[in-house]
């Protein structure tokens, strides 16, 4: 990424213990001798001054003493509570190793134990029973701050582990870290929020140590009014910022994003982030096969937030890139859920959510199809009849893409595009090595979790791309924030996905990875942000007056990097 060419200078009003206890400004042993004298730190620190390299070495060695992922997670959380620059520098130097510790899958374990782990609180807790004071509570946290990004959850559908109540605050703080680590957004300008509307998790309702509102989830109009009260506060006090909806239940997720998209810059990673990174993967794959998006037949196994988000994103890209109608694009999709293929007959029985109805198949098309004892049209029958070129899994049903399914697909497709995206790896629809074997090395693959390279029949190693949302959502957010757009438009998201696809190693090597290596995620997301800003300027929704040819230069100047500045004491200086 792009490091500052000059050491930044800051005027700080904090002194002594207050300065050491502020993670934004604390340098620990890196305070210079002059700064120690000026800020009253001489007697509060050991005498030796360390640079960031020595601090990172010490912190990494201490981290390695922890023998479990959750213990490492706790150590890193403690480090973040003390010193932001050291925390983000350490993470950036060990990006691939430590991202799974501070994010998925380890963060899911931490969230599930939220009420049983003693940690310093962070973020904003807005509880349904305290909504009368919501504005005061909101301002208490945000007054005097520049808030560019709000990451908010109601914690109904956390990281594949479901309803976690007030513990959902930690998925917001984890997402915020990724936005900073990979997207370069200033952590001081991010607000993490949990909307505590109760929980339907019986174990939490019966846990005497649970520290959230121990009540069944509020739903219906009361829920909508509560969420809207929060959104109105954001729009009132921080109108240009981005609101990231995280891990809302599938019905609320689609409803909220649809309602607020015309009113404010909003983003749902489970829907749009998953859709965008999958779009980029498919774009890369079809370029390898020398095809186009509308020339494919798509079977998506799993029609929840992720599956529907992927379908909508692929469809919208065809409309935007290839100029076909939504109706034409909808006909290319076959969605299979726990009730089988989504058809008009299934909808008549109430088995298809409203959001999925554009993709349901007409009844006459499937007359004579084989069904199971419950009358469901299963995945194998769909593959047999549709002959898909793209098979996407977001079902969390392990081994769903078995040898029959994969071999059936490979019969009629020279380079089958197979994307088993379920997380964690134990829930993946097919192991990449098995898919490689069953297709005689012809499959183009990407997964939702990290996997080692697959060995082809000729002995060549095929790298398995991780179709990780973190390859795109920080860049989408950064671009939206930097151009000050009051809307994150569909075309801005498509522009980001197209830029990611352009960076695919497979474009220069047909047997290369479909997506860039995660180690390059910061640079990749910067390029995505540039594409988003350029598109916003093109659409006329950007509120900056940058020329398109200067976007990259302007964006570089605004990236936050974890570097120690030079401090000067000033009673009227920074305090937060």
From TrEMBL:
<dbReference type="InterPro" id="IPR001891">
    <property type="entry name" value="Malic_OxRdtase"/>
</dbReference>
<dbReference type="Pfam" id="PF03949">
    <property type="entry name" value="Malic_M"/>
</dbReference>
<feature type="domain" description="Malic enzyme N-terminal">
    <location>
        <begin position="80"/>
        <end position="261"/>
    </location>
</feature>
<dbReference type="GO" id="GO:0046872">
    <property type="term" value="F:metal ion binding"/>
</dbReference>
<feature type="binding site">
    <location>
        <position position="468"/>
    </location>
    <ligand>
        <name>(S)-malate</name>
    </ligand>
</feature>
<dbReference type="GO" id="GO:0006108">
    <property type="term" value="P:malate metabolic process"/>
</dbReference>
<dbReference type="GO" id="GO:0005739">
    <property type="term" value="C:mitochondrion"/>
</dbReference>
<dbReference type="InterPro" id="IPR036291">
    <property type="entry name" value="NAD(P)-bd_dom_sf"/>
</dbReference>
<feature type="domain" description="Malic enzyme NAD-binding">
    <location>
        <begin position="271"/>
        <end position="537"/>
    </location>
</feature>
<feature type="binding site">
    <location>
        <position position="270"/>
    </location>
    <ligand>
        <name>a divalent metal cation</name>
    </ligand>
</feature>
<dbReference type="InterPro" id="IPR046346">
    <property type="entry name" value="Aminoacid_DH-like_N_sf"/>
</dbReference>
<dbReference type="GO" id="GO:0004471">
    <property type="term" value="F:malate dehydrogenase (decarboxylating) (NAD+) activity"/>
</dbReference>
<comment type="similarity">
    <text>Belongs to the malic enzymes family.</text>
</comment>
<protein>
    <recommendedName>
        <fullName>Malic enzyme</fullName>
    </recommendedName>
</protein>
<dbReference type="GO" id="GO:0005829">
    <property type="term" value="C:cytosol"/>
</dbReference>
<dbReference type="InterPro" id="IPR037062">
    <property type="entry name" value="Malic_N_dom_sf"/>
</dbReference>
<keyword id="KW-0479">Metal-binding</keyword>
<feature type="active site" description="Proton acceptor">
    <location>
        <position position="175"/>
    </location>
</feature>
<feature type="active site" description="Proton donor">
    <location>
        <position position="103"/>
    </location>
</feature>
<feature type="binding site">
    <location>
        <position position="247"/>
    </location>
    <ligand>
        <name>a divalent metal cation</name>
    </ligand>
</feature>
<keyword id="KW-0520">NAD</keyword>
<dbReference type="InterPro" id="IPR015884">
    <property type="entry name" value="Malic_enzyme_CS"/>
</dbReference>
<dbReference type="GO" id="GO:0051287">
    <property type="term" value="F:NAD binding"/>
</dbReference>
<dbReference type="Pfam" id="PF00390">
    <property type="entry name" value="malic"/>
</dbReference>
<dbReference type="InterPro" id="IPR012301">
    <property type="entry name" value="Malic_N_dom"/>
</dbReference>
<dbReference type="InterPro" id="IPR012302">
    <property type="entry name" value="Malic_NAD-bd"/>
</dbReference>
<feature type="binding site">
    <location>
        <position position="246"/>
    </location>
    <ligand>
        <name>a divalent metal cation</name>
    </ligand>
</feature>
<feature type="binding site">
    <location>
        <position position="423"/>
    </location>
    <ligand>
        <name>(S)-malate</name>
    </ligand>
</feature>
<keyword id="KW-0560">Oxidoreductase</keyword>
